[in-house]
Amino acid sequence: MNKKRLFNIVKWISIVVVSIMLIMSGLILVFKENIKAYAVEEGNKYLNKRLHIGYMDVGIWNTFPSMSISFDDVLVFSRFDTLQTLDTAIYAEKMILKFNPFDFFKGEYNVKQIDVKKAKINLTILEDGRVNYDFLKPKEDESASSFHFDLERINLINADFSYKNELTDQFYAGFFNDLALNGSFTEKQFILDAETTFDIQSIQNKALTLIENQSAKCKVKIQMDQINNVFEIVSADLAVNNLPFAIRGKVSGDSLDFYIGAKNLSLLDVAKNFSLNELELVQKIKGTGLVNFELTIDGKTSKPAFEATFGVVDGSLSDKGFSVSDINLEGKYSNGVKGRKEELSISKLQFLTLNEVFDGRLSVSDFHEPRLVGHANGKIDLLVLHRLFGPFDMDELLGEIEINGKFDVRFLGEERSLQNLAINTFQSQLNLQNIQVKFKNDNRIIQVQNGNINIKNQYAKIEDLSLQLNNSQLEINGELNRIADYFNKKNNLDVNVAIKSEAIYVADLSSTEKQEEQEKVRDWLLPNDIAGSVTVDLGKVDYSNHTYSDISGRLTFGEHRLIFNNLNGVVSGAKVSGGLVIFEEKPMVLDVETTLTSNNIDLKPIMKEWNNFEQNVITEKNISGRAKVFLYFKGPFDLFEEGLDMNKIEVLARIGIQDGELKNVESFKGITKSLKESAAKLVLNKRRINSFEERLLNLKFDDFQNEFTVKEGVLTIPNMTIKSNALDLTLEGTHSFDNAINYGFNFRYRELKGNKQSEFGGVIDDETGFRIFLRMTGSIDNPNFAWDREAKRALKQEEREQAREDFKSVLKQGFNINKEDTTISDYTSPQKTEDEIIMDFGNESPKQEEPEKEKTGLGRKIDKWKEEKKEQEQPVFEWE
For the purposes of burial, counting CB atoms within 10 Å of the CB of 57, is it exposed (0-12), middle (13-18) or buried (19 or more)? Predict the structure, then answer.
C-alpha cells in the first residue's frame, strides 16, 4: 500500500469521525435539555439525599470517545435520617458521568465511569448510630430503565476525605491525590482493584493520635462478595513514608478483622521516613536499632477493637557530647473495647547512659482526663533530654539528674497544665549535679553545681541547692508545702526557705531578652497566694554601682505584699538597720515604706556612691564628717508608667552630723558677693569681707542636728542654728524637687568682723549686737540674695514674747505674783562668766598712748558721708 492510498484512508476515516461527532454534537444540542431532565429524573430514583447542582452540561468533545454528562459544584448536605444539617457531606467542583456515545442512538444510557475532581467527602456517624452517607436508596420497582449504572471505574482526583465516628470516638482524615477504583461494580461478586497515593493527615482514636501528617501509597485487591456480604483483602502493599507494612483483613457482615504489622524496621529508616522532630533528630545523631509494630482491628464494624504492640530492640543514640546505648522498649495500646479501659502502657524502658542503667515504666489511661502512673530509677543526661524532646525554649541544657521515684497523677480538664494536675501519689528523690541552662534570647547562664530535692506528694524539701546566675551565687535550703494545691489554685503555697549568698548582682536577676514591642498591660507583680517567709544572709549585693554588704533579715509574704523584718546591712561602710514594706495596691503600682537608722555614716563616700544625690551644689569634694541618721520614706513607684510620683513622696529624716566640714561650696560665695555689692561694704572693709569669705569656704562645725521633711514635692528645713568656725548661722527654708529654693538665714554682724580673739584672750559672745538677715530665692543654679526684713521683725517679736515670759517668771519667783499659774515656769538667769584680772608688774615701762591725730577737713567730710549712708541703711543693720 502506497503512501497516497494510506493518506486517503486516514483522511476519509477522519472525515467520517468528525462528521459523526458533528452530527452527535448537533443532536446533543437539540436534545440537551431532554437528556438533562431525564438524567435528573433517573438519578433521583437512586439517591437518598437531595442533590444541589450549580451547572449541568452534556458533551462529547472533552471526553471523546465517551459521551458525558458533567455536573459543576455538586453539593450534598449532611442528613441523618430525618435530621437535616447545613454541614457538607459531599462537595465536588466537577463530577462527570461517562457512557458509550452509541447508546445515545439506542435511547439507553449505561454509565461506565465516574470522575470526581476537587472534592470534599465528610462521612459521619452520630452517637446514636445514625449516618450521613446512606446516599443510595433501594429501588422501588424492578421495571426496566433506559438509564442505569454499569460501573467499571471510579476516579477520585484531589479529594479531602474525613471519617468521624462519634460512637467510638474515632477520627480519620486524609488527602487523596489520585484514587482509582476498578471493578465490575454491578456484579454480585468481583475483584476490586484500588491504587492510590495519599497523605494521612490524622488517624486518631479517642485522645490518642496514632499517625499524623504522613505520606502513604497503597495498592490493594479486594474480593467483593455481595451475595455473602463478605469483603476480603486478597493482596495489599502499604507503605507509610516508604516503610513497608503487611496488611490482611476481612469484613463479613457487621464484623471485621484486620491486621497491620511491621517487623525489624531499622530505627534509622523510621527516623528518615517519619516527620516527627524526635525521629528526624535520630538520623542526625546516628541512631541504630530495630523497631517492631503490630496493630489488630476486629469486632463489630460499629465499635471495632484496636490493639497495638510496639517496641525497640538494641537501640542506640550517639552524638558529640553524649551516648545512649542498650535501648530496649516494650509497649502496647488498647482502645478499651476488649479490656476494661483505654490505655497506653510502656512496660519496659531501659537504656544505659552516664555509665548507669536507667529503668522506667509508664501507663497512660483515661485520655480525656489522662492519668499517668509510673516509676523511674537512674540517671538522666539532660543533654539527651534537650536534644530528643527539647529545646524547651532553651539554647543549652547540660548536666545530670539522678532520680528515684514513683508517681500517680491526673490532668483534670482538656488543658494539660500544672494548674490542672491532681496528685494521687508523687514521691521522688532528685540529685542535681553540674546543670547548666541558657534560655533563648537571654545571655545569662544558670548553673546548679549540686543540690538535693526530696518530694513527697505536696511537700518538697530543698537541701544545699547551690545556684549560680552569671556572677551571682545562691545557696538555698528550705521547704515548700501545698505545691499541687498552689498550682490548682486551691490554696496558698507555703514557703519556708533560707537563702545564703556571698555575692548577688541585681543586674543578673533581670532577663536580657529582647521582647517585641507590644501594648503594655497592667498586671499584678506580687503574688497573693504565697505564704511563709524567706531568711536571707547575703555577703554582698551590687545594684546600679551601689554595694551593700552583710545583709540579713527575714522576708514574709502577704497578699500582694512583701515585708522585710529586722533588716540589717552595711552601706558605704556604715551599719544600717530597719524594715521595709512593699505593697501592690493596684497592678504594677508599688507603695514602698521603709524605716532605716544608722549611727555612723561617713558623708564623703556615701555622697560619692550615690552620685551626690543628683545635685552639684554640695558634692563629695566639698563635704566630710560623720552622721547619725533616722529615715522614714513612703512613696509609690508606678512600674507601668516607669516613674515615681515625686509629689506623693513622704520623708522624715532626723540627721545629726559630727566633725562636719564644708569646703569651697560655690553657693557660699554668693553671700560674700552680696556683702561686697550692698551697703555692708561701708561698714566692713574689703579685708574683713575677704577674711570672712575665707572662713566660709572652709566651714567647720562640731555638732549639728535637725529634722527634715519632704511632702508634696518640697523639702522643708525648719529653723536651726549651725555653729561653725566662720559664724553661728541660723537657717530655715524650702527646696522643691524642681530646684526652686527659698532660704532665710541670719548671723551677727560682729562675727563678720572676725574678732573672736583679742589681746586678752578669746572673746565670749554675750549675744548682743545687731544681726544681718538674708533671703536666698530663685533656683539653685541661679540664686538671688536680698535683705530679709520680715525675718528680722519675726525674730524681734519672738524676743519680745520671750522677755514677757521672763518678766512673768521673775514676778512669780520674786514676789509670789500668779504663783498658782502652772503655765509660768521659774526664771533662770543666764550664766555669767566672771572676769579674772591678772596684773603683771614687769620691769618694762608701759608704752605711752599716742594722742589721736586731728582729722583734716576731708576726713571729717568722709565721716559725715558714712554717717548719712549708715542712717539710710538703718532698717537692715539695727542695734539690738
Answer: middle
